[in-house]
Amino acid sequence: AAVFNWPDPLIDNIDDQLYRPFFSPVSTFALGCGQRDNTSIAAEWLRIAYHDMATHDIDSGTGGLDASIAYELDRPQNIGVGMRGTLEDFLVSPIEHVGMADVLAMGAISAVIGCGGPAIPFRAGRIDATEAGPETVPEPQQDLASHIESFRRQGFSATEMISLVACGHSLGGVRKADFPLIVTEDEPTDVKTFASTVGFDNTVVKEYLDGSTQNVLVMGSNVTTRSDLRIFSSDNNATMQNLASPDSFNQICGDLIERMINTVPSTVTLTEPIEPLDFKVTDTFLFPQGGSLAFLATLRIIDSALNRTVTLFWKERTGKFCPDAGCSSGSFQVDSEAASLLATLKGVNTFKFYRFNAAIDLATSISHFWFEVNNNDGSTPLIVDNQGKNFVIDQDVLLFDPRRTSATIGGLIMVAAVKNPFSTAAVSAFTTIKGTTAVPVIGSVTTNFELDSSHPPADGYTFYTSPTSFLHLNRLSDTLHATVDGEAYSVWVPTVVGTGV
Ligand code: HEM
């Protein structure tokens, strides 16, 4: 599994989206296989992942799951309200380090488990395309040879094609409004579902084999568009027979959908699978306050029956202030939070958040920190120190100041603290901003900060603030950058609400 070397905004954020419910639509909207548009949210999420991936060309190594679908929505092959609807579901989910392509891939995993299917490992690191890919999504009126060639180009054999289509068509169905030549006028429903059950299971296979299927791509009156029939029967039903066992259906579909979401351009390298982290440092803030440096930090631990105490330790950046064992502070608050469905499928039900608020000596500052976790059961306390490397604070010159930052009706007024600049520092924020319903693609903007007239210099720091023209309301994440006395600094600001943290 992927190792979390703090700070790592990519793994940090993905872990939150996958394993903390209510952090992101990704882990919540598709729960319970909830219905929408006469089919399910999950069906819409799974279909878009396939269509986005279907631009892959194994021969040239181009295309794949890269969110190019956002530029391809006007094509007939991508017709359907679910496509735009899904991108709208996810408008709030990307950040600077996590693109829409990773979000679509997480969505596919959530769709499958939300409807009772298998848990699929998630690897991160997809890169969003900046333009449309080729028009290579298979369509129902094409012949079998074209479909075999489409799937070959996407990286799947003819047998895998049969399985992947059966897996995908376990969910949802075909809309009359979008496909009037397939779901014809005489059909009583607006959506003709592929199977008689809503969940992610092999009903679509069983009903095909026993002849009771209502799948309109198998038995619809329009023979030209019976693509599922041509595909399913292309090896005399051998693959469909194999999928008739629920276990092999789950196994094969889990593996193939995993390969589907991991189909990316050859220039992209994905991380190892991201499992729930045993120990995760989160919500760290360092800023000058009342004669010292306030240091807020949280250690998230997978909950167990143990009655733990956790202590934060740190060492000075310059000079001597702390005892040899390090300065220390106990947690002031412990919160519990239920884990997401995906986490529970991996045996993790609850997280505990040990929160710290330490006052750091201003003159000697802080260079690194670590934690001691005591299970209070006689065992040796565990040291949590970023795999032996410590949690290193790389600089204290440019800091994000959450307490001087304020939320107004117009959005966030961000404040950065710069340590003792000899000359005026050039401070700016690189802000990732939400796409819109019309253009569901994330963007970014760089904003120069101004000397903060409402916060005079204090504790050896000078404050800079975002101008009122700052695009606050659409912000997804920020990195602050500054040039201070000729040196460049940056600080990653995780998505937080403005005041007081
Ligand atoms: C030859 C290949 C395929 C063809 C011709 C095809 C065709 C179609 C058509 C015409 C629809 C109806 C869409 C709508 O009305 O909104 C549909 C729905 C769907 N397809 Fe496919 N499909 C293919 C492969 C796949 C694959 C490989 C997957 C995923 C692994 C997939 C997943 C879905 C899902 C989940 C839906 C339901 C969407 C909803 O209810 O909103 N399809 N497909």
UniProtKB/TrEMBL annotation:
Its EC number is 1.11.1.-. Belongs to the peroxidase family. Pfam families: peroxidase (PF00141). The lineage of its organism: Eukaryota, Fungi, Dikarya, Basidiomycota, Agaricomycotina. It is an enzyme of class 1 (oxidoreductase). One of its GO terms (molecular function) is heme binding. SUPFAM superfamilies: Heme-dependent peroxidases (SSF48113). Residues 36-307 form the Plant heme peroxidase family profile domain. It comes from the Eukaryota. It comes from Mycena albidolilacea. PANTHER family: HEME PEROXIDASE, THYLAKOID LUMENAL 29 KDA PROTEIN, CHLOROPLASTIC-RELATED. One of its GO terms (biological process) is response to reactive oxygen species. This is Peroxidase. Keywords: Heme, Iron, Metal-binding, Oxidoreductase, Peroxidase, Signal.
